[in-house]
């Protein structure tokens, strides 16, 4: 035993804590790599990330208890960690609040606007102090922190923007049911750049044979220059 900073210090306890910390790191990374990354639901991934933070906080307090025991320095370390956590949480909230102020000065976000950021596209429902609430085409509500929007390329437009209409036909081999083909066409249209998401595409079955079927479609885009891209996206699904 060595006298360090006026308390009993055990090299064995320190080595034990370090070994357990490495094992914990390996286990958490193993779970993330082979299980969490294969899950498509974002809320489960976010829950796991929060769980990791919670686990490391518990491990940190436990490690201090083992190494420093009930000394004065243990209480000092606990208070310091709590202060760091509070400061980090305050900054986590403040950065979205500050980013929101900057963005609102530059972009007048209002409910009813179309909004697109990466693969998130929908209608703004609410613009509060920390985040945008966007309703996507499938009805899912997505909350986007302002800090994620700041510095990223995004698009917003009034819901009453005039859109251009494009009509075309596509013949599809009947490898799927009519409902499944219509679903795939709609998805391809809505995932296309420049499509007007506040107007539902019209997908009508025009002709059907034993081997194929022909659909007539009417889609809406914010500009005619997106017509060919939207049509190309639909046709590529069945190439």
Number of helices: 6
Helix residue percentage: 40-55%
Q: Count the strands? A: 10
The CATH topology of the largest domain is given as: Alpha-Beta Plaits
Q: Give the strand order of the largest sheet, numbering strands 1, 2, ... along the chain.
A: 6-5-4-3-7
Taken from the alpha-carbon principal axes, the silhouette is: elongated
- Main β sheet profile: 5 strands, antiparallel
Radius of gyration: 27 Å
Distance between the termini: 74 Å
Rounded average pLDDT: 78
Total number of distinct structural domains: 3
Q: Assign the CATH architecture of the largest domain.
A: 2-Layer Sandwich
Structural class: alpha+beta
CATH class of the largest domain: Alpha Beta
Instruction: Provide the succession of SSEs.
Output: EEHHHEEEEHEEHEEH
Unreliable spans are 1-5
What fraction of residues sit in β-strands? 25-35%
Structure characterization notes:
There is one protein chain. 48% of the residues lie in helices and 25% in strands. With 239 residues, it is α+β, with helices and mostly antiparallel strands. The chain folds into three domains: 2-70; 106-157, SH3 type barrels (Roll); 164-237, 2-Layer Sandwich (Alpha-Beta Plaits), CATH 3.30.70.100. α1 (11-34) runs antiparallel to α2 (42-68) and α5 (178-190) packs antiparallel against α6 (227-237). The chain starts with a strand and ends with a helix.
Give structural attributes.
elongated; alpha+beta; Alpha-Beta Plaits; SH3 type barrels; 239 residues; 3-stranded antiparallel sheet
List the helices and strands and how they pair.
Layout: E1 2-4, E2 7-9, H1 11-34, H2 42-68, H3 72-106, E3 114-117, E4 120-127, E5 131-136, E6 141-145, H4 146-149, E7 154-157, E8 164-173, H5 178-190, E9 202-208, E10 212-221, H6 227-237
Helix pairs in contact: 1-2, 2-3, 5-6
């Amino acid at each position: 035993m060595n006298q360090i900073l006026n308390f009993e210090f055990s090299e064995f306890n320190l080595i034990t804590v370090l070994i357990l910390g490495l094992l914990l790191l390996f286990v958490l990374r193993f779970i993330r790599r082979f299980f969490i990354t294969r899950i498509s639901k974002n809320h489960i991934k976010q829950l796991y990330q929060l769980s990791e933070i919670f686990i490391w906080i518990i491990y940190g307090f436990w490690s201090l208890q083992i190494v420093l025991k009930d000394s004065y320095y243990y209480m000092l370390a606990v208070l310091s960690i709590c202060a760091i956590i509070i400061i980090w949480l305050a900054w986590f909230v403040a950065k979205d609040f500050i980013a929101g102020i900057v963005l609102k000065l530059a972009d007048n976000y209002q409910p009813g606007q179309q909004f697109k950021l990466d693969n998130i596209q929908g209608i703004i429902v609410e613009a509060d102090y920390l985040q945008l609430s966007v309703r996507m085409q499938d009805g899912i509500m997505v909350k986007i922190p302002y800090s994620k929007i700041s510095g990223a390329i995004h698009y917003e437009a009034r819901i009453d923007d005039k859109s251009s209409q494009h009509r075309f036909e596509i013949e599809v081999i009947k490898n799927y049911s009519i409902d499944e083909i219509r679903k795939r066409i709609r998805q391809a249209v809505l995932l296309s750049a420049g499509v007007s998401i506040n107007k539902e595409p019209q997908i009508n079955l025009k002709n059907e044979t034993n081997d194929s079927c022909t659909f007539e479609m009417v889609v809406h885009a914010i500009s005619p220059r997106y017509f060919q891209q939207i049509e190309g996206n639909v046709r590529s699904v069945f190439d």
